[in-house]
From TrEMBL:
Residues 1-22, 76-105 are annotated as: Disordered. InterPro entries: DUF6698 (IPR046521). Pfam families: DUF6698. Residues 78-87 have a biased composition (Basic residues). This is Uncharacterized protein. It comes from Favolaschia claudopus.
Length: 426
């Protein structure tokens, strides 16, 4: 029930030097695995270690790609030998080098992480998605007609992100294992939000109440939509009447302010750009780490509806009494999988129906994260009113430029007749 509270204190991880490089950061965490640690501290260290390992793997993959690109520039081109790509080292013949044998699995795992960032924190049905046949004629406008169409739509999203050479093998168990490795990414993200990134996500007053589950419940429950029990109904958490989702909240659902709380954008910045991603996010020169980061690794240049829904779910979890990020909250009983589906459904339905509030919302997020990217009409998404007004005048100037004068139709007819008569010698 929502009232159930775990009052046990959550020990904080001791401060240690950060950003010393992937290997140094991992070794620093390893050194803290001591017998004196409590189970809760050990769990936190494991989650932090998983996050560091994920970051290191992505960084190394990005470096490998850079090295490969440089090699291609300096090595003379030669005909490529066609050969089968294997997904595991023990499946590959001895003649294949280990890097090639691991490439497909690594890229599939990378696709799983990309899915977490852009498409969704959870699968609708993890068992069904791998056995379902791909509908090549699937119509996204039917996505929310039934559970089967929701699963098919999610399968389409998975297929779009999977490496081409993994698509035909998607029913093999290792593919599911690699993509399901995104569970580790969920844990790493949750750890990042509650620990190293928290200073960017909560003000000084709120920070004092993050130590225990009970403290979060008492201080933040209304913010995340808590509705107390009455004589006729039990307590619950409202999905859409949660002030934390809005930049302005007056007690009712207002789509013009929904999903615009700066906290949601700061959370997304943590996912895209690392623990310090929210630094100067709303300024002209926002922080970007020197090391490879998710936004660049996955070449993310637009805000997706899934990313917004993810940020909304994570914001609620962050301020909740829940101590772990599970599909169902271990203290609040919030169904986070269902909550994600509710948010993304309204966003995608609105996008399909060309609702103004969804279009404006995506433009707002894009203006913050990708201000230099172009809209479909060529306008800079992050441009201010003055720049956009100037561009409108430029467009008008070119559109209204005079054309070559064309003689009226009657004159054209007369000219044709005269030409015909001259040719006929009349």
């Amino acid at each position: 029930m929502p009232q159930r509270i775990d009052s046990e204190s959550e020990p904080t991880t001791p401060q240690r030097p950060r950003n010393q490089g992937p290997l140094a950061n991992i070794l620093n965490v390893f050194q803290e695995f001591t017998p004196s640690k409590t189970q809760r501290q050990m769990r936190g260290l494991r989650e932090e270690l998983q996050g560091l390992l994920n970051d290191a793997e992505d960084a190394f993959s990005a470096k490998d790609s850079e090295i490969a690109d440089l090699s291609n520039q300096v090595v003379p081109a030669r005909p490529r030998r066609r050969r089968k790509r294997f997904h595991r080292a023990d499946d590959a013949p001895a003649s294949l080098d280990s890097q090639n044998s691991e490439t497909l699995e690594d890229r599939t795992r990378k696709a799983g992480r990309h899915f977490i960032i852009d498409e969704g924190l959870f699968f609708i049905d993890e068992g069904a998605i791998w056995s379902l046949d791909v509908d090549d004629d699937f119509d996204y406008s039917t996505e929310f007609d039934s559970k089967s169409t929701r699963i098919q739509a999610q399968l389409q999203d998975v297929i779009r992100l999977l490496p081409d050479d993994a698509v035909s093998r998607r029913t093999e168990e290792w593919i599911g294992d690699a993509v399901h490795g995104m569970g580790g990414q969920r844990s790493a993200t949750a750890y990042r939000l509650r620990r190293p990134s928290l200073k960017h996500l909560a003000d000084a007053t709120d920070l004092k109440h993050f130590t225990t589950s009970s403290d979060r419940f008492e201080n933040f429950k209304q913010r995340i939509g808590y509705v107390p029990a009455t004589d006729t109904a039990g307590a619950y958490y409202s999905a859409f009447k949660a002030p934390i989702l809005y930049d302005e909240f007056a007690g009712e659902i207002d789509v013009d302010h929904l999903f615009r709380n700066p906290l949601l954008l700061n959370i997304h910045a943590c996912i895209l750009r690392g623990a310090d991603g929210p630094t100067d996010l709303f300024k002209d020169n926002p922080y970007r780490p020197q090391a490879p980061y998710m936004e660049k690794i996955h070449n993310i240049t637009r805000t997706s509806t899934g990313a917004i829904a993810n940020a909304a779910v994570l914001a609620i979890w962050l301020y909740s009494a829940d101590t772990k990020f599970l599909e169902r909250g271990n203290e609040t009983n919030i169904n986070y999988r269902k909550r994600y589906r509710q948010y993304v459904e309204e966003l995608r339905k609105g996008l399909t129906a060309k609702k103004a509030w969804v279009d404006a919302l995506l433009n707002y997020w894009d203006g913050v994260f990708f201000p230099d990217a172009d809209d479909d009409d060529g306008a800079a998404r992050g441009a201010g009113d003055g720049e956009n007004a100037e561009m409108e005048s430029v467009v008008d100037a070119f559109a209204n430029a005079p054309s070559l004068e064309t003689p009226p139709a009657v004159f054209s007819y007369v000219i044709c007749v005269i030409s015909y008569l001259q040719m006929a010698g009349l």
